[in-house]
Design a protein that fits this description.
Layout (H helix, E strand, L loop, with lengths): L16 E4 H6 L2 H11 L8 E4 L4 H18 L1 H8 L9
Parallel strand pairs: 1-2
């Protein structure tokens, strides 16, 4: 299901285009138009959310659990990563 605006998906917020993973794989005319609208023009934010990516939920959960294990149980790893600069935008 191609989302044509954030009005269809209020959780997306203003300007975020949501595309289902399956639609992205097919890249039909509707999906290409949606992507074009997301990246081109004065109202384009250049942001696209992809919904329904196979395995993403499990991978995210696994990464979170590993981060917790490092933070709580592995002092050597904490020391190793303490010097790594946070590169997340806004930090």
């Amino acid at each position: 299901m191609v989302s044509h605006s954030d009005k269809d998906h209020p959780e997306a917020g203003n300007g975020l285009t949501i595309v289902d993973y399956e639609d992205l794989q097919r890249l039909d005319d509707d999906t290409l138009q949606l992507l074009s609208n997301a990246f081109v023009g004065t109202a384009a934010y250049g942001v696209v959310g992809i919904r329904g990516v196979p395995g993403y939920r499990e991978s995210r959960k696994g990464a979170f659990e590993k981060a917790v294990n490092v933070a709580v149980h592995d002092s050597a790893a904490r020391q190793q990563f303490a010097g790594v600069r946070q590169t997340y935008p806004g930090k």
